[in-house]
Amino acid sequence: MGRKKRHRGADRPPAAAPKTGWVRGIAVLAVVGGAVALALMSWRSDPGPTTRSPSAGGALPAAPPPTATPGPRAATPPPAAAASAPAELRPLLGEWRRPDGGYVLAVTGIAEDGTATAGYLNPQPINVGRAEARRDEKGVLHLFVELRDRNYPGSTYTLVYDPEGDQLVGVYFQAVQRASYDVVFVRRR
What we know:
- This protein has helices at 21-43, 79-84, and strands at 50-52, 94-97, 104-110, 116-121, 125-126, 128-135, 141-149, 152-162, 167-174, 179-187.
- The chain is an alpha+beta fold.
């Protein structure tokens, strides 16, 4: 007589499928958490060391000492551009570096109407939408720079020239974060 071969376990009930709902839940949370972290990092810019609310007043902090670490190079003003800039605005020409992060602002020219030609590096070039220089009624030099680029949609620098320290001191408004920060730029050249 023929014996039927039985497959091992054929008479056992099928095993219950493992419960994977909690594993999927953890995986979804990990993916969402990672996406949120990446999104925050992608639009976050190093604003500088000191936060200042838009309504805060008072004196700006003294400039930190310049660091010896070389940073990215921006274009320096050609001699013809410096010669064509209004004499009272020429101190604004040059290459300026933020010691707190290596950001570089290069003012390469200033027209008679105060329109400035400027470049900005962080460390890659960031588009400058507009730049303006002026001297106020007290003789203080001002430089305004508006950035228009990815992650910088309308971020601005509002700076004042400090002749004693040969530096630019002012406020950086980070448009994405809607926050203002005290900043200092020291002359590189």
